[in-house]
Amino acid sequence: MTLIGHDNARAAWRDALEGERMHHAWLLAGKAGLGKMQFALAAARELVGAAPGLEQHPDIHVLTNLPKDDKEEKKREEGKPYETKRNIAIAQIRAMQQRLTTRPTLGERRAIIIDPADDMERNASNALLKSLEEPPRGTYFLLVSHRPSRLLPTIRSRCRTLRFAALPDDAMEAILVEQASDCDAATRSAAIAAAAGSPGRALGFIASGLGPVAELMRRILGEGDAGFVLRGELAASLGARPDRAKLEAALDLARSILDEDLDTLPADTLTPRVEAHAELVRLTGELATYNYDPGLLAMEIGTLLAGAAPASERANV
Known about the structure:
By secondary structure, this protein is of the alpha/beta class. The chain is 51% helix and 9% strand. The protein contains 14 helices and 5 strands.
């Protein structure tokens, strides 16, 4: 994905890099899909002085969610899509810390990227905190975070924060034209509306084929669903066995649709939308922990949207 925008974050990083005292820990904060990991990799390469032709630098270390099991590990080795564990474990942090007892391989600096830092187990977070409190000379940490509030306050306090804002529609359009050139204009428009400024989410929307899902969600929000027919169609449209990424995209999509045209709605009609949005946020947070039945989750999403429909359309919700 082309990294478009985020000029302020780029400028802040370059100023620090050229300064006399570079902060040792950085928190890259913003919603998922904005290109924070891509930024982290580029920043790390600048930090260690990686040569343009060297793809994998020995002083750039990335900690992320490992494959779920041996079967998924084999898929990764074969270059296929694979499912990951839900958390970054303390063993990964310990292995990284053991590496820090040696000097960098090619220069005076090394970079540790954790993506997403939000997924660290509690014990892993506590272990990382020790390294942030007493960082080895020449070691710099870049923590990619979609939800900084999930990090320990003591970790946040030891990091300098770079904030990544949602992209405007014209920047989103440019990215989708480049990255999804075979996609028609109507689908791109729907993806941009659903993604709320996140290129990654927009591309995920297109890849997941969520166009029909978005149409059904808007119908439920606009018309209600007294006979439960649209909710059944919504469950069928998501499919019998959608993966977690598709379910997350569907929840993101529902929240984005609730946010549409809020400025044009009467104030006394906003409460049902706000309540439905809050419940979708709760479901999204629980998705990583609970094994939801996809059909029941689709019905729940539909019920929340129907409950936020105009009062005259709310029935049997």
